[in-house]
Each structure stands twice: as C-alpha cells, then as structure tokens.
C-alpha cells in the first residue's frame, strides 16, 4: 500500500545532497529530501503523516506509522546546540497525531543568530531509496505531497 508523506512546512524542496551536514547529505540516516524555508521569521511545522509521535525534541521529531518505519523531521542543522531556544512544542511524545497537525512552532531568529542552517531534512527511516518517489526541487506548500512510499 502506497503512503504519501506531506510537506511539514512551506518552502523550497532541495535534494538531501545539498544539506550542509554529511550525515544527511550522504543519506546515512535514511533517504528523503529537505525543505529550505527561505526568509520567513516563524514556521509552524506539522506532522507529515498520521501516526505515533515516538520521539519529540525541540529541534527534531519522529512519527512512526508502524513499529518498523518512521519519518524524521529535523529542524535545521546543528540546532540541537540551541538547547530549545526558538522552538515551541505543540504536541507531546507518545501521542497519536494526524497529518497536518501542529508539532512545533519555530522562531528562526535564534538559529540564524547562531549561524545555523535552517534547512529541514525530511527522512524516511528504515526504508530503501528505491521505494520512494521524491518531490521535484522547487516551491512546495505545507501539506503538499513530498514523498511517496511504494
């Protein structure tokens, strides 16, 4: 059964290879794409798929559709060093979420002041790249199809 993963934010789709972090750029975490939010000041980041919010940190979260497959949304690069500054959690770890539900509101000022990249990788965990169809590079709106798992 095919599953569609929606864009968790509005911005510009870029290939993972352009993410300024070798762990994401080399798809070591898993295959996917990234979204550059552009010059916005604040972002509402949503659940890209329905499932259980199995991990929730200010800068990243994982939603699991089934025990062996999750979707990681990582807000920026090296933003863990911000220790939560600029991130407001709108959900709790362990809860069931629907696609499009608010997870984090992100004020990007703290990340930009610390000179952190605000690019957002969206990665499918525990799957192979050949099972995925990725959105083309270019503009995307929150909720639009981003990744299709076949």
From TrEMBL:
One annotated GO biological process: phosphoenolpyruvate-dependent sugar phosphotransferase system
Domain of life assignment: Bacteria
Start and end residues of each PTS EIIA type-1 domain: 21-126
Keywords of the record: Kinase, Phosphotransferase system, Sugar transport, Transferase, Transport
Cellular component terms (Gene Ontology): cytoplasm
Subcellular location: Cytoplasm
GO molecular function per UniProt: kinase activity
Protein name: PTS system N-acetylglucosamine-specific IIA component, Glc family
């Amino acid at each position: 059964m095919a599953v569609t993963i929606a864009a968790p934010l509005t911005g510009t789709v870029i290939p993972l290879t352009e993410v300024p972090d070798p762990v994401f750029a080399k798809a070591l975490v898993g295959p996917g794409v990234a979204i550059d939010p552009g010059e916005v000041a604040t972002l509402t980041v949503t659940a890209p798929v329905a499932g259980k919010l199995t991990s929730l940190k200010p800068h990243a979260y994982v939603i699991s559709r089934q025990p062996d497959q999750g979707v990681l949304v990582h807000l920026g690069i090296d933003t863990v060093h911000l220790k939560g500054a600029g991130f407001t959690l709108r959900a709790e770890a362990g809860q069931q979420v629907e696609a499009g539900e608010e997870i984090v509101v992100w004020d990007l000022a703290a990340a930009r002041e610390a000179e952190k990249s605000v690019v957002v990788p969206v990665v499918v965990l525990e799957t192979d790249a050949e099972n995925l169809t990725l959105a083309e590079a270019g503009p995307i709106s929150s909720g639009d199809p981003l990744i299709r798992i076949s």
